[in-house]
Design goal:
4-stranded antiparallel β-sheet; globular; 47% strand
């Protein structure tokens, strides 16, 4: 399994960015895709979780209503659309996957529950 993020950059507060996660090797009927972020000096934080089985998506409270996760099956891509960005959204964003994790479980926010990770892409929100 390989995951490759792209789409990060510098954006002003209130702006938008769309991150992409190119996936390969995820040939299972079910898996979870998580988006995480890590700010300097802080722990890695779960942002969203997407379930391949039922298409359900979960978000951490701080991004609800601003971030949207979607998947393009034909391209094996998962996206994180981020709107109304705030300085506190700054960090390295990662996508991660696990075959056995259910997004409906509180464990989706725990980085240790994911077996596969991308290399990350930097998002900086600053004026």
């Amino acid at each position: 399994v390989q995951l490759v993020e792209s789409g990060g950059g510098l954006v002003q507060p209130g702006g938008s960015l769309t991150l992409s996660c190119a996936t390969s090797g995820l040939t299972y009927d079910y898996y979870a895709i998580g988006w995480f972020r890590q700010a300097p000096g802080k722990e890695r934080e779960g942002v969203s979780c997407f379930s391949k089985g039922d298409g359900a998506t979960y978000y951490t409270d701080s991004v609800k209503g601003r971030f949207t996760t979607s998947r393009d099956n034909s391209k094996d891509m998962v996206y994180l659309q981020m709107n109304d960005l705030k300085p506190e959204d700054t960090g390295v964003y990662f996508c991660a996957s696990d075959r056995y994790l259910y997004c409906s479980s509180y464990q989706w926010k725990q980085p240790g529950r994911y077996n596969y990770w991308g290399q990350g892409t930097q998002v900086t929100v600053s004026s």
